[in-house]
Amino acid sequence: MTQSQRLTTTETSLAVIETIQELDGATPAELAATLELSESTVYKHLYTLSKHGYVASDGDEYRLGARFYHIGMYVRNRSKVYELAGKYVITLAEQSDEESDFGIEENGRIVTLFDSVGSSATPSSRLNNYEYMHTTAIGKAILARLPESRVDEIVDRWGLPSLTAETITSRAELDAELDRILERGYAINDQESIPGKRVAGVVAEDPDGHVIGGFTVSGPAYRIEDTDLHQEFPDILQRVVPEFEAELVSQGLL
């Protein structure tokens, strides 16, 4: 795709949507100021997006519309692979007696599709559900499996922003961490995205070695010891995730 194929009008609409999300609702004046656009231009985009259900007005503010929820459910359910992953999120939560997640990489970010803290897996409801790969266990586990050129692309695009005092912020540090992940077979997120949360994660892959996504087990730092993070959690993940991979094959889903 060449630069001439880009549609600036579409890009502006997308910028309006992303800014409304970032600001958790915004007036046309706020959007115009943030995006450095005229209010008349912003109104045109809001009118079109509102007509199709992608934004809704709440007094003077505009918020994202419920149409996105419908689309999100379609994306989550479009693949039987992801539906099966939800079943194994429950298994991991039950066996660890902690929280479990399943997420995928998309456009160099991690999207969590399912999470569970008990006997049922639900669509992820967390507010920040489009995470930087270098801050998450799933993201780092996937990065460790990618060619260096692809890692370069992701880091060049998104950078290595700091979310907590523990976040990796240098490429040298990230490369060293990815080497450790390959050596031990699992990744950790030790309060790197959220203070007080310790996470272990592994990738799930198809028989050809292509990454499908990643599973995690996590818990609060006040309760999760190093032996949990580096032994119990990885042991559970490395026992259960191969069962998921095997069932994908047995059901003919790959």
What would a concise description of this structure say?
With 254 residues, the chain is an alpha+beta fold. The protein contains nine helices and nine strands. The strands form two sheets. Strands 3, 4, 5, 6, 7, 8 and 9 form a seven-stranded antiparallel β-sheet that branches. It has a two-stranded antiparallel sheet with strand order 1-2.
Compute the number of strand runs.
Answer: 9
Percent range for helical residues? 40-55%
What's the helix count? 9
Low-confidence spans: none
- CATH homologous superfamily designation of the largest domain: GAF domain
SSE string, helix = H, strand = E? Answer: HHHEEHHEEEEHHHEEEH
Question: If you had to describe this structure to a student in words, what would you say it looks like?
Answer:
The protein has 254 residues and is of the alpha+beta class. The chain folds into two domains: 3-65, Winged helix-like DNA-binding domain superfamily/Winged helix DNA-binding domain (Arc Repressor Mutant, subunit A, Orthogonal Bundle); 71-250, GAF domain (Beta-Lactamase). The chain has helices at residues 8-23, 28-35, 39-51, 67-77, 80-96, 137-143, 148-158, 171-184, 226-250, and strands spanning 55-58, 61-64, 99-106, 109-116, 122-123, 131-132, 187-190, 197-205, 211-220. The strands form two sheets. Strands 3, 4, 5, 6, 7, 8 and 9 form a seven-stranded antiparallel sheet that branches. Helix 2 (28-35) crosses helix 3 and helix 5 runs antiparallel to helix 9 (226-250). The longest helix has 25 residues, at 226-250. The chain is globular and about 55 Å long. It starts with 7 loop residues before the first helix and ends with a helix. The model has no long low-confidence stretch (mean pLDDT 90).
